[in-house]
Design goal:
alpha/beta, single chain
Length: 403
């Protein structure tokens, strides 16, 4: 597929205009809707950013194949403007403002993760630009009283609570938990919710420690954890963080009845790199391709979304890619319902959405955060993520013991 890619050096960031199905000159000649997508396409968060870009691209491709987005009887093509903020949150804020004031985007997708999404949302709120954060789950993102920010991830406790309840029910001998968290908004918030959930279910939190972003040696921390002999080790971070922690756990021959990691095991890259060392690691996420939803969005069913994704990218989608795609689909539905590109009208339609999608039921709560999903809990078994709950999409039974 032909794509135009225009590169500039503004604010030391890489600006990519991906006009799906259009050349740059054609984009100027036709009616288009511009969506801004600041992403950490380089730096340590690049693996996660690439997933989001794939999700956005698939949605834009499908929308354009169908003729574009219908606005008051007129069709508009989708154009996505990408910026690389190089895994640097202050730069994410700068590039978000650049998109609005210089690139004149109509609508925005939030930067990756809770920390950058929270920071960037101050800019979109200032300019009253409707924004959907596709990878921000922490309540601190949505408790700012903002009107133009929406998010496709349920709160963090919707992951930790069912995971804890499952461990308590299936592994009653688990009494002691050790928690290790990346000192970043989303991973730390998940860890704090895990601590609350564990204590609320009568478990002892014997260890809770943070590690700095970019930490390469966890040996001293892991030695402390090993000395406490917890039955459950819970670690948060991103793909590269968690792979490193798991390798160093193996180096010290640390074993536990339960090992949980969020969010790495949801990604195929983690599964491939961890190999046999990932066996029986548990996790939770906001979506899984095993789901069987029949939606009113452009993708229709979950199965159709998975099929289209596999055809384009030759791999199975995970929750990060699916969330990015549904964010685009939700914008499309809201714009078509509004029959206008007026930002306030589109914002109001987003706030009123109560719709089934391939991603699941979508309804935004009073803060703009989705409150209608039941995220899956899963476990790596035989090199694959096997869904353990909810019962509707359950694929296997919980197994104990991680080496």
């Amino acid at each position: 597929m032909a794509r135009s890619r225009l590169v500039s050096r503004g604010l030391n960031s890489l600006l990519i205009v991906a006009s799906l199905g259009l050349s740059a000159s054609a984009a100027q000649a036709q009616d288009v809707i511009k969506f801004g997508a600041p992403l950490p396409l380089t730096g340590p968060l690049a693996p996660e950013a690439i997933k989001q870009q794939q999700g956005y691209d698939l949605w834009a491709e499908q929308a354009n194949k169908a003729g574009g987005i219908s606005v008051g009887g007129k069709k508009y093509k989708v154009e996505i403007v990408y910026t690389d903020y190089q895994s640097n949150t202050p730069r994410a804020v700068q590039t978000t403002e650049q998109m609005i004031t210089q690139n004149n985007v109509n609508f925005l997708f939030g930067p990756f993760g809770s920390g950058a999404a929270k920071a960037g949302s101050s800019v979109s709120e200032k300019y009253k630009v409707p924004t959907i954060a596709a990878t921000a789950s922490s309540s601190q993102v949505y408790d700012q009283g903002y009107k133009y920010l929406f998010g496709t991830f349920t709160p963090n406790d919707t992951l930790t609570t069912p995971l804890t309840q499952m461990v308590k029910a299936k592994a009653p001998d688990v009494k002691k938990v050790a928690i290790l968290a990346r000192n970043d908004l989303f991973p730390l918030a998940i860890a704090q919710e895990m601590e609350k959930s564990a204590k609320g279910n009568g478990l002892e939190v014997a260890y809770f420690e943070k590690y700095a972003i970019g930490t390469l040696d966890h040996s001293a921390t892991l030695s402390q954890i090993k000395s406490l002999a917890p039955q459950w080790i819970f670690v948060t971070g991103y793909i590269n963080d968690l792979l490193l922690v798991k390798k160093q756990m193996a180096d010290q021959q640390i074993k536990a009845t339960v090992v949980s990691m969020i969010a790495g095991p949801a990604y195929q890259e983690f599964i491939d790199a961890a190999g046999a060392g990932g066996e029986n690691i548990t996790s939770a996420a906001w979506w899984h391709p095993a789901a069987q939803y029949s939606g009113k969005d452009i993708f229709g069913t979950t199965a159709n979304y998975v099929k289209l994704f596999k055809e384009k990218f030759k791999s199975e989608p995970d929750y990060a890619q699916a969330s990015a795609s549904v964010a685009g689909a939700l914008f499309q539905m809201a714009i078509e319902k509004a029959g206008s590109l007026d930002k306030d009208k589109v914002r109001d339609e987003l706030a009123k959405l109560d719709v089934m999608t391939f991603f699941g039921p979508v309804k935004f709560g009073p803060t703009g955060q989705i409150n209608s999903l039941e995220p899956p809990v899963f476990q790596l078994q035989g090199g694959k993520p096997i869904v353990l709950s909810p019962a509707l999409i359950k694929q296997g039974e919980f197994k104990l013991g991680v080496n």
